[in-house]
Amino acid sequence: MQVFTAYSSMPKRLDITLPSPSDLGFDEPDFTGYWRNKSHCPDKSGSYLVWIYLKHNTRLAKPTKCILSPGWYVYAGSANGPGGLRARLSRHLAKDKSRRWHIDQLTTKATHRYGWAWMNACECALITHLQALPNFHHPVSGFGSSDCQQCQSHLLKWSELTTET
Hints:
By secondary structure, this protein is of the alpha+beta class. It has one domain (21-156). 14% of the residues lie in helices and 27% in strands. It has a six-stranded antiparallel sheet with strand order 2-7-3-6-9-8. It has a two-stranded antiparallel sheet with strand order 1-10. The longest helix is centred in the middle third of the chain and has 10 residues, at 84-93.
């Protein structure tokens, strides 16, 4: 059994433990961070994962009315428009914003938001990789993937701090 230690680039004040990208079998991201260091994120196209911690039950209105239990969630997306990854992650990592996308329902309620970005990744490949791991599952179908034909959703819940190796 592998026990994850605190991911080294997490802000020191957070008393949380996340796996590192290498713990999960990913190449090192082009960006890791939170809203304060978003200026280091590339302004190029790519895909990303946003880690979201919900401290309380959280109601979703879309795509299906449901309640998400407290815990860590990870959302995959892509950024191909103006401003690239920096613009998209800046929005997702901010707490105060208008609610435009499914993920906004969570990021506005989250106590912690953290992002990883790759310029050479595909959001569906990121989700496919994570859902094959034992500690990830889809909490709600269709979340963030209304334009995707292959994924059940682009949101996963991370259910444990350990994995079997």
